[in-house]
Specification:
The chain is an alpha+beta fold. It has two helices and ten strands.
């Protein structure tokens, strides 16, 4: 019995089973954290829809952060820049989850563009941009950091730290 699924010509690529399994695992991990850190994310007024967007890494830096009154730790902060879909659109607060394996760090990011329908009637003077920062505990070099944007096409999904743009 053939279990393969065929797609009509011209249809967007469908996520692979491996990718869906990975997204499910990350969502499950984030869900276990949710009860202790649950908060509502306000959606701007006049938002018509939300869409996942991909960003680009603009900076990776290691910083000292206070852990206790006289103790500090280190974390690696990744600055991201996003191009919004419309002039009046906004970036919702970015959600992230980090995973460290050996000397490599992967940060899974969900970034949502809140689309304002008035964007269709407004002319942009410049391409609308937004920025955000995510972090991972520990000190990592740019080539050791990988950012995975969830909810976007597989071709856009992974951005490596060694390729800051």
């Amino acid at each position: 019995m053939d279990r393969s699924i065929t797609q009509p010509p011209g249809s967007p690529p469908q996520p692979s089973l491996h990718m869906l399994t990975r997204i499910f695992a990350i969502t499950a991990a984030l869900t276990t954290l949710a009860p202790s850190a649950a908060q509502a994310i306000p959606v701007p007024a006049r938002t018509e829809n939300l869409s996942a967007i991909v960003g680009r890494i603009t900076q990776i830096q290691s910083v000292r952060v206070p852990v206790a009154h006289t103790v500090t730790g280190s974390e690696t902060r990744v600055s991201l820049q996003f191009t919004l879909n419309g002039c009046l659109d906004t970036l919702l607060p970015v959600l992230s989850y980090s995973e460290v394996r050996g000397r490599r760090a992967t940060i899974y990011v969900t970034a949502l563009n809140a689309h304002n329908p008035d964007s269709a009637r407004v002319r942009c003077v410049a391409i609308p941009q937004a920025t955000a920062q995510v972090s991972v505990p520990g000190v990592f070099q740019p080539q050791q950091v990988r950012v995975v944007f969830l909810g976007v096409s597989p071709e856009e999904q992974v951005v490596r730290g060694g390729r800051t743009q």
